[in-house]
Amino acid sequence: MRKLLTDLTRELEAGRAAMLCTVTDSRGSVPRGTGARMLVLEGGEALGTIGGGAVEHQAVQFARELLEQGRSAERTYGLAPGGDADMICGGEVDVRFRCLAPSDVRELEAIAREWAPADRVLLFGGGHVARALAKVLSLADYSVEVWDQRPEAVTPALFPDAAALRCGAWEAALEALAPVAAEDYVVVMTPGHQGDFTVLAQVLKTPAKYIGCIGSRSKAAAVRSRLLEAGFSEGEVDRVRSPIGLPVGGKAPGEIAVSVAAEMIACRYGSPIERSRYASN
Q1: At what angle do helices 253-269 and 128-139 cross, to 10 degrees?
Q2: How does strand 164-167 pair with strand 119-124?
Q3: Sheet-wide strand order for 92-100
Q4: pLDDT at residue 272, rounded to an integer
Q5: Cα–Cα distance, 158 to 134 (Å, whole number)
Q6: Lowest mean pLDDT segment, chosen from 29-33, 164-168, 172-176, 186-190
Q7: pLDDT digits (tens, 9 = 90+) for 124-153
Q8: Which of 2, 36, 141, 232 has the most CB atoms within 10 Å of its CB?
Q9: Which residues are CB-neighbours of 176 under 8 A, at least 6 positions away?
Q10: pLDDT tens-digit profile of 75-84?
Q11: Contact indicator for 125, 195 with CB cutoff of 8 Å
């Protein structure tokens, strides 16, 4: 969503109008739910997606017509066979088409607040895998905040897609952050066992939805043992997913990042893959 806002800002500041298409409500089976957004530019280009297929094609066409007329509108699309989009999903989506003129650039801050909030990820560690993961997660509409105690590891050049970059000791990891909520994701990728343990000992006291720690099975066992010795119960320590990532076999940073992101997405939607892998936890 940050990328879409950047694109919208660029267009308006350049003196070009744009159409912001937003799914405001959905019913039944649909490709994308409430909050999905797409931009249609004056040249006809569409950025982002509200679900693809016939419904998106029709929405783009309608958005182009509205842009030429300089007006906004709302429309409902049926996704059942024989419906408006003649798709087999069987659901229905309401789409709001908001025409934004260059003069509306002053309202972008307010517009940004209306967007559905992305899932928040707290990423501890700024190494190669963390950099790749932040990039992948941004494509999946996660808002990534990166923390590392090494200033050189948390720079905008290394994490151009991050929502926030912070530097500080592992021991103070949660002090400067907004409270971790039950919908938040935590990924621990510090450079060593001690950093992992220090962060996990803090994170396990929060209701985070997902807690993952990178490492081999032997490292995972060692960190688990330390957490138990520190007084955490078996049930509490079982919340830590380690090793993390779906077992796709990749070893390169980008491959590992994709496997971790896939596991997080599975957790997001409670998929059978995610449930079966951690059924014993």
Answers
A1: 40
A2: unpaired
A3: 46-48, 37-41, 18-27, 92-100, 73-78
A4: 66
A5: 10
A6: 29-33
A7: 999 999 999 999 998 888 889 999 999 999
A8: 36
A9: 166, 168
A10: 998 876 655 5
A11: yes
The amino acid present at 237, given as its one-letter code, is: V
First to last CA, the chain: 34
Positive or negative torsion for Cα 156, 138, 116, 267: negative
Q: Which of the four pLDDT bands, split at 50, 70 and 90, describes residue 163?
A: confident
- Residue 275 clears pLDDT 70, i.e. is over it: no
The beta strands (E) that lie in 62-176 are given as 73-78, 92-100, 119-124, 142-148, 164-167
Asked whether the beta carbons of 93 and 30 are under 8 A apart, the reply is: yes
- From the number of C-beta atoms within 10 Å of its C-beta (0-12, 13-18, 19+), residue 88 rates as exposed
Backbone phi, psi, residue 275, to 5°: -70, -40
H or E, element range at 39: strand 37-41
Residue 264 · residue 256 · CB < 8 Å: no
Q: How far apart are CA 11 and CA 82, in angstroms?
A: 37
Question: For residue 121, which of 201, 178, 190 has the smallest C-alpha distance?
Answer: 178
Cα dihedral sign for 154, 157, 159, 161?
positive
- Predicted confidence (pLDDT) at residue 88 exceeds the cutoff of 50: no
Q: Are 26 and 143 in contact (CB under 8 A)?
A: no
pLDDT at 232 over 80: yes
